[in-house]
Each structure stands twice: as C-alpha cells, then as structure tokens.
Amino acid sequence: MPSSDHPIAIQAATVLPRATPSHYPEPFASGMAGREKRSLGEVFGLSNFGVNFTRLAPKAMSALRHAHTNQEEFIYILQGNPVLKTDEGRTQLSPGMCAGFQAGTGNGHHLINETDEDVVYLEIGDRTPGDQVVYPDDDLQAEFISGGWQFLHKDGSPY
C-alpha cells in the first residue's frame, strides 16, 4: 500500500527539476549547462534505485564520460537523437532505443546532444553502496560516502 506521503501516479514533466544541476566540482559543473534532471524515484520514496526524467538541450551532455564500480545504469530514449559515447566509440540513438551499463566494466559512457532539438530520456540506476566512479577523459574520480559524492583528482588530492 502506498504511503500517504507519496502519490500513486504523476505526470513526469510536472516534477520540479533538481535544484543543483550538477554535483561535480568546477570546472566540470559548468559543463553540465543544458542538462535538466527530474528525480522521479524520490517522488515515490524509492530507495533501492533512482529514476531521472532527463532533458538535454541542444549541445548539452548527460554527464562526463564515466564508469561505476558497483552501480548499474540503464537509459531509455523518449525523444531526440543523442550520441552514446563509450569505449567502443559513438553510437547514434533514437526514440525507443535503450542501453545498459554494467558495474565494474570500466567502460566509460555518456550521452551527447549534437542536434538542435531537445533529447529526453529516462535514466535508471541502482544505489549499491560503496560505489566509486572513474572518469577516463578527465582528472576526476568520485566515491559515494555517507550519502554524498566526494570528488578527487586522479592523484587522490581533493577538489
């Protein structure tokens, strides 16, 4: 039975976007301009996995190219034609396509909107504890500690 604190169903687009567009430290945070995430899982009180309704404006990207050690991710394209960049190269996506990213592979991934139209997709990820993230293209690494991301340079020094 649903909690009285959580709705049974909603229109995803009515959820307010996240107040903080990015958890990255500068200079990386400003590179996330044009990305808008609506945290759908939180609306329902979900704790085992997260669901984001995400919009990428033209020329925006989903995240820095990254790979998780413990957490898995899945995306489903609703609108637009983003490019998925992985270690294998570039893959053009379109509405109805999806992709999954296994934990622990080290295969960095992200979406780039190279078009003049918005991209809208669902992003689903689990919340396995002890996760670490590598960013193969940037001097950045992250660890999820006590409910928040701690960002470090690749040499271990803090941002």
How would you describe the overall organization of this protein?
19% of the residues are buried. Helix content is 3%, strand content 36%. A five-stranded antiparallel β-sheet has the order 1-2-9-4-7. A four-stranded antiparallel β-sheet has the order 3-10-11-12, with no helix packed on it. It has one helix and twelve strands. It has a domain of 108 residues: Jelly Rolls (Sandwich). It has 159 residues and is an all-beta fold. The termini are far apart.
Helical stretch tally:
1
CATH architecture of the domain at 24-131: Sandwich
* Order of helix and strand elements from N to C terminus: EHEEEEEEEEEEE
Main β-sheet: number of strands, strand sense, barrel status?
Answer: 5 strands, antiparallel
Helix content range of the residues, please? under 10%
Q: Which oligomeric state applies? A: single chain
Overall number of strands: 12
What key phrases describe this protein's structure?
159 residues, mainly beta, 4-stranded antiparallel sheet, 1 helix
Describe this structure in a few short sentences.
With 159 residues, the protein is an all-beta fold.
